[in-house]
Amino acid sequence: MSRPAASDETLPEPDRVPGAPHPREATRVIGQDAAIADFIAAARAQRLHHAWLISGPRGTGKATLAWNVAKWLLSGADTPDLSTHPEDPIIRRIRALSEPRLLLVRRPVDEKTQRLRAEITVDEIRRLQSFFHLSAAEGGHRVAIIDAADEMNQAAANALLKLLEEPPQDSTLLLIAHQPARLLPTIRSRCRELRLHPLSPEDMGQVLQDLGLDHDAAQLSALSGGSIGEALRLAGQDGLEVYQRIVGLFADYPRMDRRAAAALAELAAGRAGAEGDPFDLVVTLLDRFLTRAARAGLLGAPLPEAAKGETEVLRRISPDAVAARLWAGAQAELSARARAGRSVNLDPSALVLDMLIGLANQPAV
Q: How far apart, in whole angstroms, are the C-alpha atoms of residue 296 and residue 329?
């Protein structure tokens, strides 16, 4: 279980994508058949490891897989198919974060500021140690989910390592990691890894359908790199429309519609809300356009298109390796300027407009 405050809807959940249900609400895992098959094979062979490292890019279903594994382990199902029954009392308790044999470890909320801490602290791992010690007397399998393990500070990582060196009986640790290389090698060596991969456009479409969203799955998959978490963020901020506007700015490159550029810059100055930060959205999509332009010069225009007419624009502005190097350099410069501008609190609108003017003035190919 988790602290009561974590289930309070007024407090943020660090392991939840804005605008999407929490992974514990999901009833199935889509697009990760290889990882599921690996886990099921271990279960059927009675070789369930005490610690599993579920790794892969953000938004590819790592937390969804972890929660479905936890549901199966705690529900006592006869077959390891990861299927769950939402009306099962145990499943209901898990979804409500009230199941006593389950502990969720994540970045805590600072009690004074009511803001999320930047790291998982050693106190959270000590809570994990107490959970295994106190719940052992109650019997039954126990499961802990750490989301995300690569957010632990050094003290927390050292405390977890001690736990992994002497794992509790009849227990399973599920470590979610977006960047497993940030974990201590000794932690990684004591876990069995399940590696998840970006979702295909077809799988992306299935997830969006399950969530009741009718956005273009192929375009969202292209822009998000196969990350459903990133796709949901883009969908929540009208990212496809914003990217279409960026592509349109380069339709007559090196000429650029200054009025359209100013309108895009003004959009970036909007106030950040629950769905995200408009400045971050515009800069992120500009960065991806430049990355796709560089790729087009080396490998051809990427498919699927992320916006109508994108292929034609990319082929024209980036026809060869020379152009690819120019756009790659522009991408690196844009990222650096965005970070520098934000660090000194420059006006977002002026910063984005300056970036766009700089791109329009770079040598044409």
A: 14
Two structure tokens written together for 311: 């292929």
Close Cβ partners of 13 (under 8 Å, ≥ 6 residues apart): 6, 22, 106
The residue assigned the tokens 């082929």 is 315
Residues in the chain: 365
Of all helices (H) and strands (E), which one includes residue 264?
helix 258-268
Our CA dihedral for 270, 276, 278, 279, rounded to 10 degrees, sits at: 110
215-245 pLDDT, tens digit per residue, is 888 899 899 989 988 998 898 899 999 999 9
How would DSSP label each residue in 191-250?
A: SEEEE--PPPHHHHHHHHHHTT--S-HHHHHHHHTT-HHHHHHHHHTTHHHHHHHHHHHT
Instruction: Give CA 100 to chain center in angstroms.
Output: 28
Nearest to 79 by CA among 51, 138, 39: 39
What confidence tens digit (pLDDT) does each residue in 29-80 have?
A: 999 999 999 999 998 888 889 999 999 999 899 999 999 999 999 987 766 6
Cβ atoms within 10 Å, residue 174:
25
Which residue shows structure tokens 């963020």? Answer: 233
Structure tokens of 58? 């953000």
Q: What's the angle, vertex CA 145, arms to CA 237 and CA 20, rounded to 5?
A: 20
Q: What is the distance, to the nearest Å, from the Cα of residue 207 to the centroid of all Cα atoms in its chain?
A: 14
